[in-house]
Amino acid sequence: MTMRPAYFRRLWITLALTAAGFAQAQPSAAPAREPVFATVGQRTITVAEYRQALAVATRKKYYHAKPPEAELAAFQREVGDDLVNRVLLLEEAKRRGIRPDRERIDAALAGYEARYKGSRNWESNRERMLAAVAQQLEADSVLERLERQVKAVREPSEREARAYYEQHKELFVEPEQVKLGVILLKVDPSSPQAAWNAAHEEARRIHKRLAAGADFAELAKLHSGDLSAGRGGDMGYVHRGMLPEAVHAVVDKLAPGAISTPVQVLEGVAILRLDDRKLARQRSFDEVRERAGDLWQRAEADAAWKSLIAELRKRTTIRVDESHFAQPPGAAAKGRAG
């Protein structure tokens, strides 16, 4: 059972909080002079902590470090929710008496020491930085242990696994497979148009020879730049999605044994032959019993985690200053229209 997605959400929050001057280990009571983003029970999250978390999450998720306008409002709320959930979950871990993994934390701190040893900035701020990082690592450790504890779901019974299979049959479909042969005339994508024109012309000549009865495998060995050339162009069976959609669009129109006209792909110009087609097949429960059980267990674990967070939010007074969120798309227009 994997817990990496939740771990990495905690990780970017950790990076955000440590980047903010190695301030506090987690959202906590803020001095009155610091603007407050949210209060969670008796604890506070400052605007600075929220903004830093938002900046780190933005750099992590968006290539140009700027969310699309249509996604901005929802993304800001997601970051705010993660910070609130962090406070709630840390309190719950404390209530349950969960302790951090001391050995793992010490090893991580030793890694920091080794990595930054000799850095003038590190040496002058070492004690303060180590203390802040240690607090962050401890918080992440107890959160990870809490999540593991909550998600420790028993294995399903035969009846439960079968019921999951019946309710999610689309997850157990073996996709269509096609057995293909290919002759690929390779062209570097950055080549001038003249190179592409030459490849298309050569492909038309090869296609004409194939239509006249030439052996596909022999021509593939002579002309193809694909890795399958040594096997006479035999690519074996491939699933939909393993090839570009444009190629599948061509293959979909072929009958077994038929050869396509030349088609341009990213790597050059290709001629395809459909050797066989295996239609999509619903796999039986007996074939996928183990996978159905694993997916049931994962779904139950995720539900248990979400249920815990929902319960914590329900029984805790939470106030968020929503002025820090952008308006959802269309909200401003609706307000003016009203």
Using only C-alpha atoms, the radius of gyration works out to 29 Å
Order of neighbouring strands in the sheet with most strands? 5-4-7-6
CATH class of the largest domain: Mainly Alpha
**Which class of secondary structure composition applies to the elements?**
alpha+beta
Taken together, the total number of domains comes to 2
So how many helices? 11
Coarse shape = elongated
Let me know the largest β-sheet: 4 strands, antiparallel
Structure commentary:
This protein starts with a helix and ends with a helix. It is built from eleven helices and nine strands. Residues 1-13 and 19-26 have low confidence and may be disordered. α1 runs antiparallel to α5. The strands form three sheets. It has a four-stranded antiparallel sheet with strand order 5-4-7-6, sandwiched between helices. Strands 2-1-9 form a three-stranded antiparallel sheet. Strands 3-8 form a two-stranded antiparallel sheet. The chain has two domains: 4-154 and 298-337, Orthogonal Bundle (Triger factor/SurA peptide-binding fold); 176-279, Chitinase A, domain 3 (Roll), CATH 3.10.50. It has helices spanning 4-19, 47-61, 69-95, 102-116, 120-150, 158-167, 193-211, 216-223, 245-251, 285-314, 331-337, and strands spanning 36-40, 43-46, 173-174, 177-186, 234-239, 263-265, 268-278, 281-282, 318-320.
